[in-house]
Write a structure and sequence with these properties.
- α1 packs across α2 and α1 packs across α3.
- Helices cover about 40% and strands about 10% of the residues.
- The relative contact order is 0.16.
- A two-stranded antiparallel ribbon has the order 1-2.
- It is mainly α.
- The chain is built from three helices and two strands.
- A hairpin with a 2-residue loop joins β1 and β2.
Length: about 80
């Protein structure tokens, strides 16, 4: 093992994640929770339902659409069919 192991001095802990509160991850999760089991909703409706500002919700919807997790047709946003 000594031939390939750098020992305890070679260990680097992984970087810490950014705080969750107020993050894009939190907004994305809130948007998905608001969409699951509901009919298509507008970004404005999602902002009201989640309590996040419209710009953050629109950014989350765009990111979720890029990840194929939601579909948006005009103002209608829904969970993507899989």
């Amino acid at each position: 093992v000594a031939a390939w192991c750098a020992g305890p001095d070679g260990y680097r802990p992984p970087p810490r994640q950014a705080p969750f509160a107020g993050s894009a991850r939190q907004v994305r999760g809130a948007v998905l929770r608001a969409l699951v089991g509901s009919p298509p909703r507008s970004p404005a409706d999602l902002a009201a339902a989640t309590g996040f500002d419209a710009a953050a919700v629109e950014a989350a919807v765009a990111a979720l659409a890029a990840d194929d997790l939601v579909e948006q047709a005009g103002e209608a946003v829904r969970v993507a069919d899989r």
